[in-house]
Specification:
By secondary structure, this protein is α+β, with helices and mostly antiparallel strands. The protein has helices spanning 9-16, 111-120, 170-183, 210-229, 265-276, 279-284, 321-326, 342-354, 362-365; strands spanning 24-31, 37-44, 57-60, 73-83, 92-100, 127-137, 187-192, 198-207, 232-234, 250-255, 308-310, 317-319, 331-333. β4 and β5 (92-100) form a beta hairpin. The protein starts with 8 loop residues before the first helix and ends with a helix. It binds adenosine-5'-diphosphate and manganese (II) ion (3 copies). One manganese (II) ion (MN) binds at residues 131, 251, 332.
């Protein structure tokens, strides 16, 4: 892979060998004001055993579109901790919620509201599995590995493709997969997608709020790995607006404890019935520019109306064939776009299928300032 990454791996190596004198580095990660990720490192005197050992921290929110300049401190409250595949050893990566100085959750902290719903419906044991699709670009803005000034052959050989010309950037993907497993992110699989240089990884099944936590951490690890290869990651749901190229989604698979055992189909059907009545509300939190993707073509359903079916990849919600045969299992909501905030999506899902709670409304939460 050729790139012009500004780093010198050979020279760096000898510094990475230096002992840390007992100190541990914690890299704090948070969601910024533009649905992107930021991180910064903090030295700890001892290795944290759990997230409770991690101190609160802060950053300049006026530099991340999260606070005004005259009151710029935003606080970082650790919520999850992972092994650091880059620094290794005792070093950790910390996922943090963002909080304003007046004690309210930051406008992009949707985890707090979603977690209230997860806690309220804990007894239902809601599991999620998200399929994150994304597209790789080179530093010059071209789709990674595509012929200069042209296009590869039409879609067909690329999905789960094998062989030169049919698969691109396998090295980046392999590195990311290993990084997830090392970190403790429940990455359950990876595959090349229909459009060349488009890929997917799956996280889950995960219980409740940990779905959002681990999806964000998997995205962080992907951005960091791709950075080392000089490759750009795009989470745009329709990265190429012209031509016959697939968009990118975040299919969200869902089950409750009742759905996962014999007789579960009636609970799956009841959930789908509830979803059909809140289509517009769900679409409003299912990602920006999703209208460019949900066209009714390229294995999607039209954004205009709700539909569902067994084994139908052209519907809003799909019941997998095997689930229909068994009579229990889970369903797949195919509507969420690749650029979702998974806390909004898992939050509204629980709100709709398990029931709303006082003081939380995920539709207004999505645009809270
Ligand atoms: P597809 O056939 O749509 O490409 P994938 O195999 O890519 O499906 O993804 C299926 C997802 O469903 C995975 O993330 C997996 O963890 C998740 N999943 C499997 N069983 C359940 C379940 N009972 N509840 C929720 N999610 C589940
Ligand atoms: Mn998939
Ligand atoms: Mn896919
Ligand atoms: Mn799917």
């Amino acid at each position: 892979m050729s790139s012009t990454v500004i780093s010198n791996t050979a020279t760096l190596a000898k510094y990475l060998d230096l002992p840390q004198n007992g100190k541990v580095i914690a890299e704090y990660v948070w969601i910024d004001g533009t649905n992107g990720l930021r991180s910064k490192g903090k030295t700890l005197a001892t290795a944290p055993k759990s997230v409770d050992d991690l101190p609160e921290w802060n950053f300049d929110g006026s530099s991340t579109e999260q606070a005004p300049g005259h009151d710029s401190d935003v606080y970082l409250r650790p919520v999850a901790m992972y092994k650091d595949p880059f620094r290794r050893g005792d070093n950790v990566i910390v996922l943090a919620e963002t909080w304003n100085s007046d004690g309210t959750p930051n406008k992009k902290n949707h985890r707090y509201a979603a977690n209230k719903l997860m806690e309220a419906h804990k007894s239902e044991e809601v599991w999620f599995g998200i399929e994150q699709e994304y597209t790789l670009f080179d530093q010059y803005g071209a789709v990674y590995g595509w012929p200069k000034g042209g296009f590869p052959g039409p879609q067909g050989p690329y999905y789960c493709g094998v062989g030169t010309g049919k698969v691109y950037a396998r090295d980046v993907i392999e590195a990311h997969y290993r990084a997830c497993l090392y970190a403790g992110v429940n990455c359950s699989g990876i595959n090349a997608e229909v459009m060349p240089s488009q890929w997917e990884f799956q996280v889950g099944p995960n219980l409740g709020i940990s779905m959002g936590d681990e999806l964000w951490m998997a995205r962080y690890l992907l951005e960091r790995v791709a950075e080392e290869f000089g490759v750009k990651v795009s989470f745009h749901p329709k990265p190429l607006s012209e031509g016959d190229w697939n968009g990118a989604g975040c299919h969200t698979n869902v089950s409750t404890a009742a759905m996962r055992v014999e007789g579960g189909m009636k609970y799956i059907e009841a959930a789908i019935e509830k979803l059909s009545k809140r289509h517009k509300e769900h679409i409003s939190v299912y990602g920006e520019d999703n209208d460019k993707r949900l066209t009714g073509k390229h294995e999607t359903a039209s954004i205009a109306q709700f539909s569902y079916g067994v084994a139908n990849r052209g519907s809003s919600v799909r019941i997998p064939r095997s689930v229909s045969k068994d009579g229990y299992g889970y369903y797949e909501d195919r509507r969420p776009a690749s650029n979702i905030d998974p806390y909004l999506v898992t939050g509204i899902m629980v709100e709709t299928i398990c029931g709303s709670i006082p003081d939380v409304d995920m539709v207004t939460e999505a645009t809270r300032q």
